[in-house]
Amino acid sequence: QVQLVESGGGLVQPGGSLRLSCAGSGIRFRSYIMRWYRQAPGKEREMVAQIDSGGPTNYPDSVKGRFSISRDNVQNTVSLQMNGLRPEDTAVYYCNVPSLAVWGQGTQVTVSS
């Protein structure tokens, strides 16, 4: 059974940074496209980062230049480095394997002074 567990969320002031991590069991991340999504209250879930199995990354304009996705194939983790955080980045962040439709439980990120 494939399971994803996110960690690293929390409360941070505007302009601050957080690093989220997604650990997998029952799956080897190296073979898959991996994504991070977020969902704010009352809003649809949106993709914020993607990393292909070969390494290329993709970001929407809303986070480009501030967020960075990476993978560690030895530790079998996918991370999301978030810098320059804004109040509008407040959301629950989810790790996702799109080809398997597998989601983690999410980790809350709150950006507030």
Radius of gyration using CA atoms only: 13 Å
Mean pLDDT: 95
Secondary structure tally: strands:
11
Q: Which descriptor suits the 3D outline? A: globular
What low-confidence regions span 5 or more consecutive residues with pLDDT below 50?
none
Q: Give the ordered list of helices and strands.
A: EEEEEEEEEEE
- Decide which structural class fits the backbone: mainly beta
Query: What's the story with the biggest beta sheet?
Result: 7 strands, mixed
| Number of helical segments with 4 or more residues | 0
Strand content: over 45%
The portion of residues assigned to helices is under 10%
Termini, distance in Å? 40 Å
Give a summary of the structure in a few sentences.
With about 110 residues, the chain is an all-beta fold. The protein has strands spanning about 5, 10, 20-25, 35-40, 45-50, 55-60, 65-70, 75-80, 90-95, 100-105, 105-110.
